[in-house]
Structure of Oxidoreductase:
Amino acid sequence: MSSIPRLKLIDACAAQADDKRRVLRLSNDADPMTFVDELSGVERIELAFPHFTDGRAYSQAYLLRRRIGFSGDIRATGDVQIDQLLQMARTGFSSAVLNPGLDSADAARHLERFTGFYQRDLAGN
């Protein structure tokens, strides 16, 4: 069984104060493969979830980690719900900005609920 990758949970207010790094923001319809030459020096890539039902950012994160080899922070932004966090962690996200009003303690408990998976994930387990 594969284990769950770590995911840093960020409060929406704290996320606004954390803009000191070199950040690349991709819209959910952008092809990450076209940004390979722009990744030098980028510390964080922010991928948008304009609506919780739009999952294109999962594929973007996977491509950035697996095919491009980006090792920096990949952050989920936008309409981030607690029930999405587990899939975000498994597809390459390393941090997520929670929707305003969501409790980070509830989100952390959700991530701790599962100890492993039988399906393969980004780690190849």
Observations:
- The radius of gyration is 14 Å.
- The CA atoms of residues 9 and 96 lie 5 Å apart.
- The longest strand covers residues 44-49.
- The longest helix spans residues 56-67.
